[in-house]
Amino acid sequence: MTAALTGRVALVAGATRGAGRAMAVELGRAGALVYVTGRTTRDRISEVGRATETIEQTAELVTAAGGTGIAVPTDHLEPAQVEALIERIDREQGRLDVLVNSVWGGDHLLEFDTKLWDLDLANGLRMFRLGIDTHIITSHYALPLMNRRPGGLLVEVTDGTASFNRRYRENLCFDLTKNVPHRIAFGLAAEVKDLGGTVVSLTPGFLRSEEMLDHFGVTEETWRDAVAQQPHFAIAESPALIGRAVRALAADPDKARWTGQSLSSGQLAKEYDFTDADGSRPDCFGYFEDVVFGGKDATAADYR
């Protein structure tokens, strides 16, 4: 699969860090030219407030992996900026084969176990803007370019599978924001079907993002030390797993069989026979369904 995407052009919207960065890097590893966008650059920090991750770094990692990374600072809430981005891709490449809508950046707004009437309303509405409006705006401008050729892939990145998200996510605005991408994928799959496109929603499991590692005070090398604080972190996966999931999807000539569906990194790891960076194959949602919610006598190790 190393050169499976040579000659293909991808856009990873929201590639500054975490899952977005990993997906961009893995598409590059397969030979793709990848435009990476976000709001944090070496000269400017977004509201997320993490200066240590930038889109320039992501682009360099894409190139180092074997692809071509191009960083374009973009606020995906600004239609004019997104339109200009797509016009640039069209002008420079004349095609778009893969679009990954991974824009979020709303974790700092979360108030779990808080009733709607007690939430900070501005924060809740901001989640809708960051996690829903950005995806709609980006697809509106990008799909005409991607639809020029059959075989395009649009990935709606979210948090939780459609099945997992039938359980309340303990914050109404977050719950709605992370369920909407499943419906976006379902609806757009119908809209691009006759044009030969594929649209899916995709979620990582318990993600060991840079921000999550910092939250627990660990590194990727020492992440298991955090299990003492949060036992369920034992099922955590590195961002590489969802990156490899997108790479496998994009390279699959029969990917249309997935269109309209809700997928997870662990599910695709089994389907396409790849592993996480440490050689394991964590099944986060199987673990939560069976053990955490179902009461099965098992451990996270049984689901790796």
What this model shows, in words?
The protein has a seven-stranded parallel β-sheet with strand order 3-2-1-4-5-6-7, with helices on both faces. β4 (98-101), α4 (121-146) and β5 form a beta-alpha-beta unit. The protein is of the alpha/beta class and 304 residues long. The chain has nine helices and seven strands; from the N terminus they run βαβαβαβαβαβααβαα. The chain is globular, with a radius of gyration of 18 Å. The mean pLDDT is 97. Helix content is 40%, strand content 12%. It has helices at 18-29, 55-65, 79-93, 121-146, 172-192, 210-216, 239-251, 265-272, 284-292; strands at 9-13, 33-38, 68-73, 98-101, 153-157, 198-203, 262-264. α1 packs parallel to α2 (55-65), α3 (79-93) packs parallel to α4 (121-146) and α7 (239-251) packs across α8 (265-272).
Question: What is the molecular shape?
Answer: globular
Percentage of residues assigned to helices: 40-55%
Return the average pLDDT rounded to an integer.
Answer: 97
Please tally the helical runs, counting DSSP H or I stretches of 4 or more residues: 9
Q: Supply Rg.
A: 18 Å
- Low-pLDDT residue spans: none
Strand elements, count: 7
Structural class, please? alpha/beta
Q: SSE order, as H and E?
A: EHEHEHEHEHEHHEHH
Distance between the termini: 23 Å
Strand order of the largest sheet: 3-2-1-4-5-6-7
Oligomerization: single chain
What percent of residues are in strands?
5-15%
Biggest sheet statistics: 7 strands, parallel
